[in-house]
Write a structure and sequence with these properties.
With 127 residues, the protein is mainly α. The chain contains 4 helices and no strands.
Length: 127
């Protein structure tokens, strides 16, 4: 249960940050509403839950493709709920945001693995 909550909250965090950036660059032409904010946070949390697919027996590439497709569908649902426009620019923005978030997560994972490996090497040297 703790993992579910943590992944949901990570998704909410990424969604909130992304939405604030979108509002800051004035990509959303209408005033934000409570429906906009709530839908962004809930769908962001659900996208965070989708990351469980990376814990399956699927190859990383297959899991990534499935995660992207499901994320894209959820974002389309959010666009529909909020009556936002869908055009080439918004599709490119969705893909760009996905790639940036994926890169941030991947860099963090690599850094974590490197730290763990360093601790293991140091422990092996001491022992």
């Amino acid at each position: 249960m703790q993992r579910i909550i943590r992944r949901f909250c990570m998704g909410v965090g990424f969604a909130a940050t992304t939405y604030l950036i979108v509002l800051t660059i004035q990509f959303q032409k209408t005033m934000p509403t409570s429906c906009n904010t709530v839908s962004v946070l809930i769908i962001g949390g659900i996208i965070g839950l989708l990351s469980f697919i990376f814990k399956t027996d699927l190859s990383y590439l297959v899991a990534l493709i499935i995660h992207f497709i499901l994320t894209f569908i959820l974002v389309l649902v959010m666009i529909w709920i909020n009556h936002w426009s869908l055009n080439l620019t918004s599709i490119l923005m969705i893909v760009s945001i996905y790639v940036i978030i994926w890169a941030v997560i991947r860099i963090n994972q690599v850094n974590d693995v490197n730290k763990i490996n360093k601790k293991l090497r140091d422990r092996k040297k001491q022992g």
